[in-house]
Design brief:
single chain, 11 strands
Length: 124
């Protein structure tokens, strides 16, 4: 079992930055792929970014490409999502998720383990 806990959300203004953390416990994330998803009010949950722990490949959704960056810290068993140039449309609950294997997917159905989410609110 893998337990995931997100942190780092908050209320910021447009143009500001935030760094979200996804701390894992229970198992080391080596051999896992980790994804970030978000869900805005009234909308379906959508893919944001993903990283393969062992292969170090990454993927980003088009709306965040060039503004968000996903990374990992092996020693802390933690994945980060650095969010720059935030926009009001980035407002959502952000979730991290993990799946066994080195391949990331954009579909949430592929991820077995989920965190509880952290709220990000960007004011204009």
């Amino acid at each position: 079992q893998v337990q995931l806990v997100e942190s780092g959300g908050g209320l910021v203004q447009a143009g500001d930055s935030l760094r979200l953390s996804c701390a894992a416990s229970g198992r080391a994330l080596s051999g896992y792929a980790v994804g970030w998803f978000r869900q805005a009010p009234g909308k379906e949950r959508e893919f944001v970014a993903a990283i393969s722990w062992s292969v170090l490949s990454t993927d980003y959704a088009d709306p965040v490409k060039g503004r968000f960056s996903i990374s990992k810290n092996n020693a802390k068993n933690t994945v980060y999502l650095q969010m720059n140039s935030l926009k009001p449309e980035d407002t959502a609950v952000y979730y991290c998720a993990a799946r066994g294997g080195s391949t990331w997917y954009r579909g949430e159905y592929a991820y077995r383990y989920w965190g509880q989410g952290t709220q990000v609110t960007v004011s204009s």
